[in-house]
Amino acid sequence: MPRLVHDTSAILDAAVRLLAAGSADAITIASVIREAGVSSGSVYHRFPNRAALLAAVWNRAVQRFHNELYPLFGDEPVDAAAALGRRTVSWCRANPADARVLLAGLGSFEPAAWPAESRSLREADQARWDKHIRRLVKDLKAATGRETAEVLLVVVDLPYAAVRRYLAINREIPASLEGIVERLIRSMLTSAAPPAPECA
């Protein structure tokens, strides 16, 4: 007889393991019941359908990641950008399962089918995150003379690309990558900005 688990995290952990072994398509109510070794009632009591389960997996991973990084936005802009890059790498290295959830992308979790409450949670967290990023980009543009696209490439895309190559093939992220990403971000933001293109 399957054991009863009253910890929602244990159920979500089982769902994340299924994703790590395949894709978000592998996350079903039945497969989570088997993976977690719990009764169907334990799962359905918390997640009445697959959409609610997928929503909880995504929202938990994103909120864990964002909550880790929010305190870093208060630093001087370049310091904040460097710290965010370094912490992104260290968080992904320490939490590879949740990092793979984020790597799969929101679309893999079928957000259009989510319960209204889950969509509202996601939208509120995304709005808060976007507000922090917009403020940082504005401050970095003022401090460095860089354009928006260049700042986003350095601050957002670079750390993502650095960890993606390891997460995509289930390889452990090396500890040295944290310092590499931090140095690259500082170097790119503090080097002389290129001259604006001349108008024809």
Provide an overview of this structure.
The protein is mostly helical and 200 residues long. The protein folds into two domains: 1-48, Arc Repressor Mutant, subunit A (Orthogonal Bundle), CATH 1.10.10; 54-190, Tetracycline Repressor, domain 2 (Orthogonal Bundle), CATH 1.10.357. It is 70% helix and 0% strand. It is built from nine helices and no strands. Helix 2 crosses helix 3 (40-46), helix 4 packs across helix 6 and helix 8 (148-167) packs antiparallel against helix 9.
Ends: how far apart? 76 Å
Major sheet: size, sense and barrel closure?
A: none
Q: Structural class given helices, strands, pairing?
A: mainly alpha
SS element count, helices = 9
Query: How big is the Rg?
Result: 20 Å
User: What is the global morphology?
Assistant: elongated
Mean pLDDT: 92
**What's the structural domain tally?**
2
Low-confidence stretches: 1-5
SSE series:
HHHHHHHHH
Helicity level, as a percent range? over 70%
CATH topology of the largest domain: Tetracycline Repressor, domain 2
Q: What's the count of strands?
A: 0
Our estimate of the beta-strand percent is: under 5%
CATH homology-level superfamily of the largest domain: Tetracycline Repressor, domain 2
CATH architectural category of the largest domain = Orthogonal Bundle
Top-tier CATH class of the largest domain = Mainly Alpha
DNA-binding region: 28-47
Pfam family, one: TetR_N
InterPro entries: Homeodomain-like_sf (IPR009057), HTH-type_TetR-like_transc_reg (IPR050109), HTH_TetR (IPR001647)
Keywords: DNA-binding, Transcription, Transcription regulation
